[in-house]
Design a protein that fits this description.
Number of strands: 10
Oligomer: single chain
CATH class of the largest domain: Alpha Beta
CATH superfamily of the largest domain: Radical SAM ThiC family, central domain
CATH topology of the largest domain: TIM Barrel
Structural class: alpha/beta
Strand content: 5-15%
Mean pLDDT: 95
Shape: globular
Radius of gyration: 23 Å
Distance between the termini: 76 Å
Helix content: 40-55%
CATH architecture of the largest domain: Alpha-Beta Barrel
Order of helices and strands: HHHEEEHEHEHHEHHHHEHEHEHEHHHHHH
Number of domains: 2
Low-confidence stretches: none
Length: 431
C-alpha cells in the first residue's frame, strides 16, 4: 500500500488529508505540502477502522497525547478503558498504550477498538515482557513485535533506534543515567550481548513494516535527561544526531516520522532544544514529554510539565505528551489522567494563541462575552473541562446558580455587574 507521505508526493489527496485540513481550517494543499516535506504527519494505520485522522506538525494546532496502560502491579482492562473514554471525551488528540505485565496484546486490541484517536505504542515493552531478562531475547523478536503491532492497527510507534553502543560512555557522566524505560532496556540488551541496538541494525526492516502499514515512526529519545543536571548534555545530543540521520532514512522510504524530545529541561534551555531538533531533523514534527522544568515538585509535575510544554510549543514543538500528578510516583488513575490532560490542553491552547493559529482565540473571546453577561451555561460549554467548571460553580453557588454574580464577590462587590451597570447609564449621568 502507499503511505500518506508517498501519496502526498504524487499530489494525491486522501480522505485523511481532507479531514485534517477541515478540522484545522486550512487549505488541503497546505497539508499535502507538509506531508510531502516531512513537516506534518497523519498517523493513520488503515487497520485502525474507527479512526478520526489527526494531523501533527508545522502550521497545525499543537496536539496533546495521553499515556495510559496497565502496569505489572496496578490497573485492569476496565480501568484502562475508562481512561480511554475520558481522554477522548476531554479532547485528547492521541493515546499511547504503554501497558506492561500480562495480556499486553489484549489490552492493546481493546484500546484500538475503543479509541477514535490515533493509538501509539512502545514495542520494546512487549519484547521485554516475553522474557525473564530482555538480554535473552533474540534480535528477531524486536522486529517481530513491530510487525504484529502494525498488523493489529497501531498508528504510531516509539522506536528507540537512536540508543547506540558508542553513547553508553556518555551516560556514565549523568546523575540519573537512563530514565527512559525503552532506552534502559535497549542499553541492557546491548551490554549483555555485546551487539549494537537491534532497532538500529535492522532499521531497514522496520521501515519496510512501517511503509506496508503506514505506521508513523516516533523515534524515541531513549537518552532524554531525567533531571536538570543532565539536561542538554552530550548523551542527549549524540542521540539526537542519530535520530536526524534515521529521520532522513524514513523520508527516503516514504515513511512518516516524528522525533521525541526531552525530558527535564530548565526554562532557559527549552527554546534552544526546540530549535536544535528542528535543525538536526529538518523540520520533522517534535513530540516532547513536558519538558519538566524543575525536579522538586513530585505530586505537581503536571504543572512543572505544562509550564515547559507551553514554552516548548511556542518555540516549535508540535505534539505534547501529557504529564500527570503521579509522574515519578505511580500509575495514574482516572482523576490523574483528567488533571494531566487538561493541564496540557491549556498548554497547547496557550501556545496556539501565542503562535497566532487561525481561530485559536475565538473561544476565548466568546468566553469573555459569556462571563460579562453571566451566561453560565455558555461558559461551561466553552470550557476545556465543562464538567469540572459546572461542578465547581454549583458547589460554590448552591442558592443562586443563575444569579448575576458568584460566591467570590457576591452581588455587592461583583465588578462585572457594577461595570455593566455603569455602561448602561446614560452618558454623563452622575449618581
Amino acid at each position: 500500500m502507499s503511505t500518506q507521505v508517498a501519496l502526498a508526493r504524487k499530489g494525491i489527496v486522501t480522505k485523511e488529508m481532507r479531514h485534517v485540513a477541515a478540522s484545522e481550517g486550512i487549505p488541503v494543499e497546505q497539508v499535502v505540502e507538509g506531508l510531502a516535506a516531512g513537516t506534518i504527519v497523519i498517523p493513520a494505520n488503515p487497520a485502525h477502522k474507527n479512526l478520526e485522522p489527526v494531523g501533527i506538525g508545522a502550521g497545525l494546532k499543537v496536539k496533546v497525547n495521553v499515556n495510559l496502560g496497565r502496569s505489572q502491579t496496578a490497573s485492569c482492562l476496565t480501568e484502562e478503558m475508562g481512561k480511554v473514554d475520558l481522554a477522548v471525551r476531554l479532547g485528547a488528540d492521541a493515546v499511547m498504550d504503554l501497558s506492561t505485565g500480562p495480556e499486553i496484546e489484549a489490552v492493546r486490541a481493546a484500546v484500538l477498538a475503543r479509541s477514535t484517536k490515533p493509538v501509539g505504542t512502545v514495542p520494546v515493552y512487549e519484547v521485554a515482557e516475553g522474557a525473564a531478562d530482555i538480554a535473552d531475547v533474540p534480535a528477531d523478536a524486536f522486529v517481530d513485535v513491530v510487525r504484529r503491532q502494525a498488523e493489529q492497527g497501531v498508528d504510531f510507534m516509539t522506536i528507540h533506534a537512536g540508543v547506540l553502543m558508542r553513547h553508553m560512555s556518555l551516560v556514565k557522566r549523568r546523575t540519573t543515567g537512563i530514565v527512559s524505560r525503552g532506552g534502559a532496556l535497549i542499553a541492557r540488551w546491548m551490554e549483555k550481548n555485546g551487539r549494537e541496538n537491534p532497532y538500529y541494525d535492522r532499521f531497514d526492516e522496520i521501515l519496510e513494516i512501517a511503509a506496508r502499514h503506514d505506521v508513523t515512526l516516533s523515534l524515541g529519545d531513549g537518552l532524554r535527561p531525567g533531571c536538570l543536571h543532565d539536561a542538554s548534555d552530550d548523551a542527549q545530543f549524540a542521540e539526537l544526531e542519530t535520530l536526524g540521520a534515521l529521520a532522513e532514512r524514513c523520508r527516503k522510504a516514504n515513511v512518516q516520522v516524528m522525533i521525541e524530545g526531552p525530558g527535564h529541561i530548565p526554562v532557559n534551555q527549552i527554546e534552544m532544544n526546540m530549535r536544535r531538533e528542528k535543525e538536526v531533523c529538518k523540520g520533522a514534527p517534535f513530540y516532547v514529554l513536558g519538558p519538566i522544568v524543575t525536579d522538586i515538585a513530585p505530586g505537581y509535575d503536571h504543572i512543572t510539565g505544562a509550564i515547559g510544554a507551553t514554552i516548548a510549543a511556542v518555540a516549535g514543538a508540535d505534539f505534547l505528551c501529557y504529564v500527570t500528578p503521579k509522574e515519578h510516583l505511580g500509575l495514574p488513575d482516572l482523576e490523574d489522567v483528567r488533571t494531566g490532560l487538561i493541564a496540557f490542553k491549556i498548554a497547547a491552547h496557550a501556545a496556539d494563541l501565542a503562535r497566532g493559529v487561525k481561530g485559536a482565540r475565538d473561544a476565548d473571546d466568546a468566553m469573555a462575552v459569556a462571563r460579562f453577561n453571566f451566561e453560565w451555561e455558555r461558559q461551561f460549554s466553552l470550557a476545556l473541562d465543562p464538567e469540572r467548571a459546572r461542578e465547581y460553580h454549583e458547589a460554590s453557588n448552591p442558592s443562586y446558580r443563575a444569579s448575576r454574580f458568584c460566591s467570590m464577590c457576591g452581588p455587592k462587590f461583583c465588578p462585572m455587574r457594577l461595570s455593566a451597570e455603569l455602561q448602561a447609564e446614560p452618558s454623563g449621568m452622575v449618581r
